[in-house]
Amino acid sequence: MAETHCACLRLGEKVPEFQLTTYDPVKDDFGTFSLAEQIAKKRWTILFFYPADFTFV
Amino acid sequence: MGCDVVTVSTDTHFVHLAWKKAEKELAAVKYPMASDPTGNVSRLFGVYDETQGLALRGTFVINPEGVLLNAEVNFYNMGRNIDELMRKFKANVYLGKKTNEVCPSKWRDEGDKTLVNPGAKMVGKVHEALGQ
Asked: Any chain B CB within 8 A of the CB of A27?
């Protein structure tokens, strides 16, 4: 069984700021994703978590 | 459409690069592939499996104000349905504009039947309101 801990993020509530290092295939370069930047640009975000590269998604 | 898809796993960005270049299934991929090696962001969303060090198949829709509107988590062995994800995303955008409406389960796209001003008059009359 997967052991996960809920950090108490709830629907309808603001997600705290976070940043992630990215590989951007369009630029073929590394970059940074920032939620604050998405809010500044007024963009929707779909976060798509998956277990591991080199497996099915 | 004003929406950015970002994939996240606990692999490093170096591995994302290597996978993208090796796997032909990913040839059309245009979205940024994010790296969460500490699992901190996966933990924030409640999808980090502490026993494996991996993230479960979680999908989250966040609006332009940074508010979380949808959450779906599948176990390791089940893939997600992209049509349903797109349905949810379109419904979110629609509902952002039409705050007095609700999208029932069969709603798929703009123009489909919604319920307007659900309230006391609709109690016990949802069937009629949907025109079924």
From this structure: no
Q: Complex ipTM, two decimals?
A: 0.92
Q: Tell me the two tokens of residue B106.
A: 């069969």
Pair type for strands A19-24 and B33-35: antiparallel
Task: Report which DSSP code applies to A15.
Answer: P
Nearest Cβ partner for B16 among A39, A48, A53? A53
Distance CA B108, CA B91 (A): 8
| Pairwise pLDDT comparison (B13 vs A4), residue with the higher score | B13
Distances (CA, A) of B7 to A21, A57, B46, B103, B117: 11, 10, 16, 27, 36
- The token pair at B124 is 């016990």
Query: Which pairs with CB-CB distance under 8 Å and at least 24 residues apart come from B82-87?
Result: B85/A46, B85/B59
User: Tell me: the pLDDT tens digits for A7-57?
Assistant: 679 999 999 999 999 999 999 999 999 999 999 999 999 999 999 999 877
Rounded to whole angstroms, the Cα distance separating B73 from A50 reads 10
Which letter does DSSP use for residue B44 in this model?
H
Q: Is the pLDDT of residue B132 over 80?
A: no
Contact B9 A51 (CB under 8 A): yes
